[in-house]
Amino acid sequence: MHPSVVTTSPVSEAVRQALEISLRGAQELLPQDAWIGKLVRSEASGQPLRIKLGLDPTAPDIHIGHTVVLNKLRQLQDLGHQVIFLIGDFTGLIGDPSGRNDTRPPLTPGQIRANAETYYRQASLVLDPARTEIRYNSEWSEPLGAAGMIQLAAKYTVARMMERDDFHKRFASGQSISVHEFLYPLMQGYDSVALKSDLELGGTDQKFNLLMGRHLQQEYGQEPQCVLTMPLLVGTDGVEKMSKSKNNYIGIAEDANTMYAKVLSISDPLMWNWYQLLSFRSLAEIQALQAEVAQGRNPKDAKVLLAKEITTRFHSAAAADAAEQDFMHRSRGGVPEQIPQLSLPGAPLGIGALLKRANLAPSTSEAQRLIDGGGVRIDGSVVSDKGLRLGAGTYVLQVGKRRFARVVLT
């Protein structure tokens, strides 16, 4: 159940709209009354609120599921608040144990530096760089030193730490928990103290760490931050959370044609969830679009708008228009204008070996499986003979709907 707008006292329309934007697609806003109070105070004083998102540079495969929290940050940025994109170059050395059933291997300083270089560029695909405060938590974490770390550790009990779900489960099942893992939520919470954060964002798996920030701010005499958690995006299969290992993801670095086609492949019900979490359209626009579909408009029209919006964000409007034309061309059985081209010696060559050498199948056995499934075409004709051998010539190979190669076989 997503949170809904509830106010306990009269507020201005601007505050009400800000609350609605905050809650859009969110899982939890804790505590909501405190956030309303901060919004009211900000409106009265003209002082923007400080809104924090921290990410450790662990070099994950960045996909659009990772941008859900960044999208929320951008929405709050557009309201005029100060967003802080925090790169956890210090906490990355510890390793976040959230959701883990084992100890995460810490990264080396060299890996941290290399990964951190890419993070701001990735975040800038969603955030406005000119209005974003970029910070690194080594700035205040390293100066703490041993004495400061001990003083920080004294502000939280082992019993409270063991209430954390992943620690509790690991302890109960006899799996090891390293002492340094207890430091992670403490250091993340201390980031909120150092930045005087009014609101911290994170995925639902970060709730314990986010609440630690509230606790430590109170310990250090600060007004505690509010906490906003966002759900994990369901992947293109409509079942599992988006993940490269599940092959249900859309990478933000994928080419425009693939990105556009993958968005169009999702189900109609999932589309509306994606609109809430990924689109920058207003809720009123989305609701109007839903009403039109309910009254008979083709849902594909709405999906095309979403596909073009997402593709434009990570590429350009021109690339999104070209991707739309490419998709329409392919849906009519055509071959895309730009496909990989390569020359291969060895004619005559078996179809399985040819698909493998053209990088359209990982192995000859997988190529044969694809042929059995009717997923392989040569010059538009379905291949059914796994023993087919091709002589010298030029061929357009196709696997599935989206993978092509033009091969000159010699």
UniProtKB/TrEMBL annotation:
It holds the Pfam family S4. Its main location: cytoplasm. InterPro entries: aa-tRNA-synth_I_CS, aa-tRNA-synth_Ic, Rossmann-like_a/b/a_fold, S4_RNA-bd, S4_RNA-bd_sf, Tyr-tRNA-ligase, Tyr-tRNA-ligase_bac-type, Tyr-tRNA-ligase_bac_2. It is found in: Cytoplasm. Keywords: Aminoacyl-tRNA synthetase, ATP-binding, Cytoplasm, Ligase, Nucleotide-binding, Protein biosynthesis, RNA-binding. Its EC number is 6.1.1.1. A motif ('KMSKS' region) lies at residues 241-245. Residues 349-410 form the RNA-binding S4 domain. PROSITE patterns: AA_TRNA_LIGASE_I, S4. It comes from the Bacteria. PANTHER family: TYROSINE--TRNA LIGASE (PTHR11766:SF1), TYROSYL-TRNA SYNTHETASE (PTHR11766). Catalyzes the attachment of tyrosine to tRNA(Tyr) in a two-step reaction: tyrosine is first activated by ATP to form Tyr-AMP and then transferred to the acceptor end of tRNA(Tyr). Belongs to the class-I aminoacyl-tRNA synthetase family. TyrS type 2 subfamily. This is Tyrosine--tRNA ligase.
